[in-house]
Amino acid sequence: xxxxxxxxxxxxxxxxxxxxxxxxxxxxxxxxxxxxxxxxxxxxxxxxxxxxxxxxxxxxxxxxxxxxxxxxxxxxxxxxxxxxxxxxxxxxxxxxxxxxxxxxxxxxxxxxxxxxxxxxxxxxxxxxxxxxxxxxxxxxxxxxxxxxxxxxxxxxxxxxxxxxxxxxxxxxxxxxxxxxxxxxxxxxxxxxxxxxxxxxxxxxxxxxxxxxxxxxxxxxxxx
Length: 223
What we know:
Elements: E1 21-27, E2 30-36, H1 49-54, E3 59-64, H2 70-83, E4 98-103, H3 111-120, E5 126-129, H4 133-147, E6 149-154, E7 167-170, H5 175-182, H6 186-189, E8 190-196, E9 204-205, E10 216-222
Parallel strand pairs: 3-4, 4-5, 6-10
Antiparallel strand pairs: 1-2, 6-7, 8-9, 8-10
């Protein structure tokens, strides 16, 4: 709710979220869809939840480190996700990227649980979360980086670039990937491409297989 301002039901008891609820998180100039799901518990999996998880690009696992059951809950959740081949121990290419956000970590009674979790899972980044604005902004940045995407700004010939609504592509995408993302016919009709940002010179002509970088500005010429 704090990340998307979606109206999420909050209660002092578990399983208050019974169905997936989506909201849009704004990170700088990009909207990222977040889906708040019911808790993942090995003995209680709502119908369709696994499909919802697999359709995502990354996971943000949220735990309440002020709860006396958080250690068992986290272990059960991680083991379940590994058994379903959603995440893996070695974070292989087939593993979905994930972060763990520890809520209520600023409470005095939470420090012991948080320390134990960090010792149990030294290979996992545990992010301590509060509702402080700077804290949430850093979490947004981590989510953006975890998705491994880049922002590309389009520029029409002879006009200023559109710096308000970037295209988002997977890191490693090329000029051809961008062209196809703009319009399916552009890939075959693409004639020339010019890039500002990652090139040596502004407005430099680049080949169609040129790999783009975050915040590049691109002008395409099509037949």
